[in-house]
Specification:
single chain, 209 residues, alpha/beta, 7 helices, 6 strands, 23% strand
């Protein structure tokens, strides 16, 4: 009896934005996620840096993530519409030792939602990263507010992370991939869940420009 040919591999390419204020650890997170490295010194990103992460999923799916590490300076934020085009997901990073960077994360999320969206008009999946959880100055009270913060600002979820100690970096990436796959569209343009069931799209959500 002839053997059945193996099912072909499918490939997904997702553009992912990594955004947040200066010095919250965006570049360190990307380096840890992609290369399992932590840079010893701080060097601010100028403009945007790029990295590629490839992950094999079952059944027979390859996900390629283009990670766009966008500088946190205000002048760069004003140019973000160009950088955001075509994005399917985002990691929004704040510094757990600096409460002001969480306030800024809300502004970054608002900016993101105003400049990019899914074909349906819904916001792209965005995961909040509470970075530098390894540091002594971490704000544990702030952590207790993040469930409500994510609900109020439309985040898909949040993770307490450390780029230095590689805490929850892979887990946050896997969670975002799952959210992006759920939002991937079929040929009719309707959003699908991961199990192939069509999702109801909330038409009341604000469309992006």
């Amino acid at each position: 009896m002839a053997e059945h040919a193996a099912a072909p591999w499918s490939e997904k390419l997702f553009k992912v934005l990594v955004i947040g204020n200066v010095d919250v650890g965006k570049t360190s997170i990307v380096l840890q996620y992609v290369k399992k490295q932590f840079p010893g010194g701080y060097k601010a990103t100028v403009g945007v840096d790029f990295a590629l992460k490839t992950i094999e999923l079952e059944p027979r799916t390859v996900v390629r993530m283009q990670l766009w590490d966008i500088a946190g300076q205000e002048r760069i934020q004003k140019m973000s519409r160009v950088y955001y085009k075509g994005a399917m997901g985002a990691l929004v990073v704040f510094d757990l030792t600096n409460s002001h960077s969480l306030e800024a994360a809300a502004q970054w999320k608002q900016d993101l939602d105003s400049k990019v969206c899914l074909q349906s008009g819904s916001p792209i999946p965005a995961v909040l990263l509470a970075n530098k959880c390894d540091m002594k100055g971490r704000d544990n009270v702030l952590l207790s507010t993040l469930d409500r913060f994510c609900q109020d600002h439309g985040f898909s979820g949040w993770f307490e992370t450390s780029a230095k100690d590689n805490i929850n970096i892979d887990e946050a990436g896997a969670f975002l991939i799952k959210q992006m796959l759920r939002c991937d569209t079929d040929p009719t343009g309707e959003e699908l869940r991961g199990d192939g069931i069509k999702m109801n799209v909330d038409q009341s959500q604000t469309l992006c420009c």
